[in-house]
Amino acid sequence: MLGRLNHVALAVPELTAAVAAYRNTLGADVTEPQALPEHGVTVVFVNVGNTKIELLEPLGEGSPIAAFLEKNPSGGMHHLCYEVDDILAARDQLKAAGARVLGDGNPKIGAHGKPVLFLHPKDFFGTLIELEQS
Amino acid sequence: MLGRLNHVALAVPELTAAVAAYRNTLGADVTEPQALPEHGVTVVFVNVGNTKIELLEPLGEGSPIAAFLEKNPSGGMHHLCYEVDDILAARDQLKAAGARVLGDGNPKIGAHGKPVLFLHPKDFFGTLIELEQS
């Protein structure tokens, strides 16, 4: 079921400094910030060739990364996103195996315009996993 | 400087359950556990096609992931490893930019038999970064 690693999401309190660190200090290929108000984040993509690193800054009230940044004020690794061929089949298989799907269990349209689901980090040893329809 | 994402390292308290979750629940391609006593971990590789996920369990006294697991007893995302063409040039460039290299600043031979360095997570917004000579 588990396909390629689509991205690693890193939550940061403030994008300007993070972009400078990745672009200037690490010499990475970094995009311009893109506001995604419907997802409560502003995102920058770091292209590392085989996958993407997403730097996420909270945007607006009730950002999905706000609680994480309260616990980790300087930022940190937020989630891993894997691609799956069929997100509904993946969900049904995961639920049958006892894994908890966050929210109401129905895929939402994610930041890349594709259906996504999140799995409970307690079922995966502290790692929040996003699945995205490929 | 920053090349492809070589792996994502996830620390887990105990590999048997983590292997079952990745192999059976997530349907991933998972190797057999490999003890690396000189690195203080037992490792399992999850092959997701474009990169690797490494599940790390502490091995022996003074494991480098022991402190992390004390803070995060159920496990969590431990570090990201990127490839670089020239690790000494990368180190010198990073130090010139003010980034802190952990340890004595000299590359060590990592778990894949190649020279590696770790960068201070405070300089990269809470993410521990490993650089590996490609």
TrEMBL record, chains A, B:
Keyword Isomerase attributed: yes
Q: Which residues form the signal peptide?
A: none
Could you name the domain of life of the organism this protein comes from? Bacteria
The answer on whether this UniProt entry bears the keyword Metal-binding reads yes
Do you know which InterPro entries this protein is assigned to?
Glyas_Bleomycin-R_OHBP_Dase, MeMalonyl-CoA_epimerase, MMCE/EMCE_epimerase, VOC_core
UniProt KW keywords: Isomerase, Metal-binding
Q: Which CDD domains match?
A: MMCE (cd07249)
Under the heading PROSITE patterns, the entry gives: VOC
Q: Which residues form a coiled coil?
A: none
Gene3D superfamilies, alphabetically? 2,3-Dihydroxybiphenyl 1,2-Dioxygenase, domain 1
Q: Name one GO molecular function term.
A: methylmalonyl-CoA epimerase activity
Q: What class of enzyme is it?
A: isomerase
This enzyme's EC code(s)? 5.1.99.1
Task: Kindly list the residue ranges recorded as spanning the membrane.
Answer: none
- Give start and end of each VOC domain: 4-134
Spell out the NCBIfam families in the cross-references: metmalonyl_epim
State the family named in the UniProt similarity comment for this chain: Belongs to the methylmalonyl-CoA epimerase family.
Q: What is this protein called?
A: Methylmalonyl-CoA epimerase
- What is the scientific name of the source organism? Mesorhizobium cantuariense
